[in-house]
């Protein structure tokens, strides 16, 4: 069903309030904007599926009741971008949620399995791909486009029932609680312009003083991009921000020595960028930011990480769990350096699956060996 008026939307909301599940997906564009442009919202219960056209329906607030109703589980596949868009469009974060991509990683699938592959695996249905690169902002939408969009939610309730049953049989349903609570944490979708500098490309090339300048310029760029609703790179690229900070300019002429900056910024914007840079350079030293880097005195732990990796790979394979959902390389490095309390693998189900053994391996309580071509874990006799 294609919903294009307020009456239809309210009728669907009334129906969905009686359901225990609500499948959710969105179509959007973001190539030329800072904020994603919502083009379509697909919703489904186990009985009804709809595509809501936000170009025709200007008031989407009736959906808020569904998204915040904790008696209705919101179903997504790869939820983060959809959640971010809903938070921006409606100011609420859906809760509780169930992400079939995350759940699949605990049932032996790869960490980022696609929706089509999962539907084929669980439901035996091969989805059409003809409209996968549609410009969803163009109107009118064809019947084929609407059918393609609805396919993204029609099978989610079936996937949820099937996967939930399997997870319960394996005793793993509760393993997902923390991951799904994190998805519904509003802080995950809140933009803090003053932390954007940490994600600049090649930011680790800057000194602490230059990082202070980068924090100010990146925050100024982020706020301007948000205000004008354009990609941040249309104001200054990451490379330009880094090069400006390396130069530590005190004048426009000095800042314009960085390639392309004089063409990228109008005079007023250039003065604002320079002012932000100087403000960062002149900030008190005790306020300079620092990146999280291992101290130079800490030893190289590549060999230890390789050993820890072998243990995780073994336990993940035995449990039928995707390696990537268990631990990251950064977490293994923390374990190898003895920072157990800083690693996510030492929390919740991950700790029981392999975290405790990783700690034992680092403390010499267990050893890894090869027997008949297979890795074996044995307790160390003292």
UniProtKB/TrEMBL annotation:
It catalyses: Exonucleolytic cleavage that removes extra residues from the 3'-terminus of tRNA to produce 5'-mononucleotides. SUPFAM superfamilies: HRDC-like, Ribonuclease H-like. Exonuclease involved in the 3' processing of various precursor tRNAs. Initiates hydrolysis at the 3'-terminus of an RNA molecule and releases 5'-mononucleotides. It is found in: Cytoplasm. GO terms for molecular function: 3'-5' exonuclease activity; nucleic acid binding; nucleotide binding; ribonuclease D activity. Gene3D superfamilies: HRDC domain (1.10.150.80), Ribonuclease H-like superfamily/Ribonuclease H (3.30.420.10). Residues 207-287 form the HRDC domain. The gene is rnd. Transmembrane segments: none annotated. InterPro entries: 3'-5'_exonuclease_dom, HRDC-like_sf, HRDC_dom, HRDC_dom_sf, RNase_D, RNase_D-like, RNaseH-like_sf, RNaseH_sf. Its EC number is 3.1.13.5. It comes from Slackia piriformis YIT 12062. Belongs to the RNase D family. This is Ribonuclease D. NCBIfam families: rnd (TIGR01388). Keywords: Cytoplasm, Exonuclease, Hydrolase, Nuclease, tRNA processing. One of its GO terms (biological process) is tRNA 3'-end processing.
């Amino acid at each position: 069903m294609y919903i294009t008026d307020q009456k239809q939307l309210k009728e669907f909301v009334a129906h969905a309030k009686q359901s225990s599940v609500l499948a959710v997906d969105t179509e959007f564009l973001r190539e030329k904007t800072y904020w994603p442009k919502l083009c379509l919202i697909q919703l489904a219960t186990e009985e009804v599926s709809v595509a809501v056209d936000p170009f025709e329906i200007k008031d989407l607030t009736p959906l808020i009741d569904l998204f915040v109703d904790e008696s209705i589980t919101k179903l997504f596949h790869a939820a983060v971008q959809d959640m971010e868009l809903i938070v921006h469009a409606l100011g609420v974060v859906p809760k509780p949620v169930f992400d079939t991509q995350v759940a699949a990683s605990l049932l032996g699938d790869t960490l980022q399995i696609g929706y089509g592959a999962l539907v084929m695996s669980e439901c035996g249905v091969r989805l059409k791909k003809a409209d996968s690169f549609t410009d969803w902002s163009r109107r009118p939408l064809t019947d084929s486009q609407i059918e393609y969009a609805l396919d993204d939610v029609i099978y989610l309730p079936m996937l949820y029932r099937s996967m939930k049953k399997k997870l319960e049989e394996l005793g793993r349903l509760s393993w997902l609680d923390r991951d799904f609570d994190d998805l519904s944490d509003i802080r995950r979708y809140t933009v803090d312009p003053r932390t954007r500098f940490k994600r600049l490309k090649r930011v680790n090339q800057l000194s602490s003083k230059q990082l202070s300048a980068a924090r100010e310029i990146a925050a100024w760029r982020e706020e301007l991009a948000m205000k004008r609703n354009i990609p941040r790179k249309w104001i200054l690229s990451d490379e330009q921000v880094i090069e400006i900070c390396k130069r530590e300019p005190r004048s426009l002429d000095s800042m314009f020595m960085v390639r392309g900056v004089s063409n990228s910024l109008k005079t007023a914007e250039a003065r604002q960028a320079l002012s932000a840079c100087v403000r960062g350079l002149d900030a008190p030293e005790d306020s300079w930011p620092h990146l999280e880097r291992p101290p130079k005195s800490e030893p190289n732990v590549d060999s230890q990480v390789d050993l820890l990796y072998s243990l995780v790979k073994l336990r993940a394979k035995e449990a039928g769990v995707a390696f990537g959902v268990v631990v990251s390389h950064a977490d293994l490095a923390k374990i190898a350096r003895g920072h157990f309390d800083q690693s996510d693998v030492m929390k919740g189900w991950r700790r029981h699956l392999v975290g405790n053994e990783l700690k034992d391996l680092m403390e010499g309580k267990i050893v890894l060996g090869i027997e008949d071509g297979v890795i074996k874990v044995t307790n160390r006799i003292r």
